[in-house]
Amino acid sequence: MKILVIGDTADNMYTLKKFLKKSKIHLITFPRKGDALLTNSEEVEFFDSLLISKQVKKIESIKNNFDICLTMSWSGARVAYLAGLNYIMYFAGNDITTPPFLSKGKISHLKNPIHKKNFFERKFYKKNFDKAIFCITTSKEYHDHLKKYRKDGIRIDRIIVDNTLFNENIKPIDRDKNKFTFLSPQRIGIEKGHDIIWKALPLCKSDFEILQMTWFIQNNYEEEEINKKLIENKPPQVKFIPLVKRKDLGRYIKFADAVLGQLKSGIQGSIERDSAYCKKPVICYTDQKNTNIIDGNEIIPPFLPKSNKPEIVAELIDKIVESKKFRDDLIKKQYEFVHQLCDPEKVVNDWEQIFSRTKEKCGTINRKLSIFEKFENSLILGIEKIYIKKFKEKNIRVWGQEEYERLIRD
Questions:
Q1: pTM of the entire structure?
Q2: Among candidate residues 341, 358, 377, the one where a domain is terminated
Q3: Do 206 and 307 have their domain in common?
Q4: 408 and 50 in contact (C-beta within 8 Å)?
Q5: Are 337 and 354 found together in one domain?
Q6: Which domain range does residue 271 map to?
Q7: What confidence tens digit (pLDDT) does each residue in 171-227 have?
Q8: Closest CA to 308 of 150, 212, 194, 151
Q9: Is 61 a member of any domain?
Q10: Whole-number Å distance between alpha carbons of 20 and 406
Q11: Residues 9 and 152 in one domain
């Protein structure tokens, strides 16, 4: 089968594309400034405009070359819906915890809602969600959120790791190392638990340094202010280094003695899985309720600590620095876990089954639209064109091209 994928998160579909056997993925995604994820962007097509109407026109021009469509992110689902496709929605991150159809969707560490959408916008995104053939997510936490809105939500715990980029035989980078070194590739922010790390580090007794990659995702002014304070109050153990391309990340992981992962959400992300595949000990707060299902068995991920209190984190950091036996035992447990969870062949098998079920259920990539739906979609895209024209004429001279493009994207 030929699969059209719109959007990607943390290169999940880009990696899956490399390992599929029975199906072939064509990935088209949204422009991302300073992108460090994609290993080889020549294998991915990018939309050449931030305007939804032009993105929809692009998908309409190529859709009949494909059997089914899969979307990642609400932006991807929006384009597929307006282009009249049958599509799968795949949530691999926080998109399902604060969906845009909620009136006051809030992230726990922010005071203000992250979405400020009116009634008609929220209704539109709910239609995007309801029209999906399947909605799929990973892990117990995200699936619990999905079940609030769709009883037929599918949970696939297996998530792929590119074992050609992340494995124990990778050659480390050539860099001086004078003391025990943690690598922290996570983006900086409270969402990843940097406020907890900053509180934990002054409590540590061992001698080490942390190489923190410098990158952010700042969705609003509130997050910008929080991140600015984190930078200003950086503990002395932390040394900032530039963000590296994903193709080079494995070499940085192999150079480090251990990896500092996220300490807020209670689940693991790609950083933790990739590092465990490289057989490096990983610090990642694990909520004991967030189990994984592997071959029908419910398993608690062997990532520590079990509490994200700063004093507990500090104790764990010291133990990893000071005890080789502790590190080796942790590596063994974490590697065995991710090897079962993330084996590319098993992940591919899960997705091939989903693709087959989707094809059987919808038959064609084209969704049958009522006269009202066709009119509504045309109206939405027409309004965008009128609004953008007036908006650009009035404001591009004031804000400049870059700010204008950011506002259009939002």
A1: 0.88
A2: 341
A3: yes
A4: yes
A5: no
A6: 180-341
A7: 999 999 999 999 999 988 888 999 999 999 999 999 999 999 998 765 556 777 878
A8: 194
A9: yes
A10: 35
A11: yes
Number of domains in the chain: 2
pLDDT digits (tens, 9 = 90+) for 130-186: 999 999 998 888 999 999 999 999 999 999 999 999 999 999 999 999 999 999 999
Q: Kindly state whether residues 35 and 142 are assigned to the same domain.
A: yes
- The domain that holds 211 is classified in CATH as 3.40.50.2000
